[in-house]
């Protein structure tokens, strides 16, 4: 299965590091980096990011302008929640049970990955999502 990644995090450094970690996992995997959620949402709406396969969206929750929760609400409202095409994995440092419980209620969120990101976490995520999609 062809896979691509969309990383959404206001920190340019965190985006860069996530891109490098994903390329350590597989250097051929397309990775699209966004420092604001609205730009990512716009590109996802126009289908300019992906052609075929599964797109894994690594989403930070705490961002200015449009936070991760707002992104997910808009993503679902625009009809982008297509289980065979997109999976959202929240990338967060939060351990607050209220945040984690709130995420469990969102149909588009497939998993929460605790920061820091690593190649092993990417490998496990891809295995989890591709086995579930097979």
Concise summary:
This protein is α/β, with parallel strands linked by helices and 134 residues long. It has helices spanning 12-25, 37-45, 68-77, 97-104, 119-133, and strands at 3-8, 31-34, 54-59, 86-92, 109-114. A 5-stranded parallel beta sheet has the order 2-1-3-4-5, sandwiched between helices.
Structure commentary:
With 134 residues, this protein is α/β, with parallel strands linked by helices. The protein has one domain: 3-Layer(aba) Sandwich (Rossmann fold), CATH 3.40.50.2300. Helices cover 42% and strands 22% of the residues. The longest helix is centred in the C-terminal third of the chain and has 15 residues, at 119-133. It is globular, with a radius of gyration of 13 Å. The mean pLDDT is 89.
Features:
134 residues, 5-stranded parallel sheet, alpha/beta, single chain
CATH superfamily: Response regulator
What is the tally of helical segments?
5
Q: Mind describing the biggest β-sheet? A: 5 strands, parallel
Structural class of the secondary structure composition?
Answer: alpha/beta
| Oligomer classification | single chain
The N- and C-terminal alpha carbons lie at a distance of: 9 Å
Q: What shape does the CA trace take?
A: globular
In total, how many domains does the architecture comprise?
1
The strand count comes to: 5
> Strand content of the residues, in percent?
15-25%
In CATH, what is the class?
Answer: Alpha Beta
H and E order? EHEHEHEHEH
